[in-house]
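Provenance and format

Records in this collection were gathered into a single text stream. Each protein contributes a sequence line and a token line. The two records reproduced below are adjacent in the stream.
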Amino acid sequence: MDKSNHGVSSRLSRRQALVAGSGVLTAGVAGCLGGGRGSGGTTAVASFFSFYDFGRQIAADTPVAVENLVPTGLHGHGWQPNFDVTRRIIEADAFIHVGPGFQPWADRAIETIEGDGIDTDLINVREGVELVDLAASLDREAEGVGATRGKDPHFWLDPQRARQSVDNITEGLVAVAPDHEDTFRENAQTYKTDVLDRIDSDYQAIFDAADRKVVQLAAHNAFQYIGVRYGVEMRPLVTNLAASGDVKPQDITRAKEVIRENDIRYIGNGVFESRRPARQLLEETQVEAYFPVTPYAGVRKEWVENDWGYEEIADNINMPTFEVVLGNEAPENVGPDGWAEEWRNFE
């Protein structure tokens, strides 16, 4: 990568031309450039929360800044960004993305980068990850956003597959900031061992302890990798891959059958998804309450304030809910103090 003054000047003029061509005021570009390449800093931007978090853990104790492009409170592939987001990508040293076919807006940004010769490095977190086939229950005509040639893209829910994405991000950051290679690699190894392997072990213990091997989720089809990894059947209410997918009458009917046949008292509901279907199941079945699950695709305001990442969300959201919905523990016996009161039938 050309880091000479001439390279920087040429690079910025190309980007300003791109911005101007999109109808954005040049003054806005100047304001954006202050913390990017023009100031000598190194910045990587991420299209998805989980990989932003991995990136910032890897870049800890270095001057490399990693930024999350997904606004607080939104699902990672259920929104359409404006040009400001594309501009942030163009101005960054690296763009951390989830591979083709998952976020159409990210694919378009990559086309712009490659088509216009912009030297933002592209870090594909999915490179080398073995994907599983889409769930057999998936309506192939309603695959929605995220379908990747018949494969399920939500691999990061499996902590062991997530290790490969940590390696991919590490290699990408080494390429843009080689002076910090040793720190990147040390941080990555620590994170894989102390966090991802520990989460994997804790998940395994939860699912091993369960008598029931079926989980009903009032959520979209994002949790198959949990089932594949730990030997349980994850039953999504929304059978397509998009978090904004519609719930069909047959989805509700199927969920009612699963709940009755497996004597299910508690279900999981996506944090960033509608609560209405879960409430319908509360009214029409034996289900007593729903509790939160998330595919680590976004963050709530209070999570940001508490500096929660992939690890904290696993510990404080998904793990307690899986303990409850599997019947391992009563809601009041899991999570931090007040967890059940906070999250029972949450709004």
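Adjacent record:
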Amino acid sequence: MKRLILAVAAALALPAMAHAQDIPRYDVEDHCEQVAGFGGSFSNSTYNGCIQMEQSAYNGLRDQWQQLPASIRQHCNDVASFGGAGSYSTLQGCVQMEVSAGENRDSFSFD
């Protein structure tokens, strides 16, 4: 009976675990509204540029997201969603910096 309960629990957890690896869903329109309205006046040009930049960043991340280490996915999602709606541009920049830093780790010297 105990094995059956564990098997059912594991089967139910699989979709949740797979979902955790999906690229986050941000409210891009809200984010771009905030950016375009910064300073008190709204700019349609800034809004459209923001949407295009966010779409490009999302497209660039979409196919590589699941191959990234979980620690980078979590950290960069936390950074990109800080303060509200979330930004794929920020997410992409964070991922690029983390991957690069992991490949080029600095070392400390007492010299």
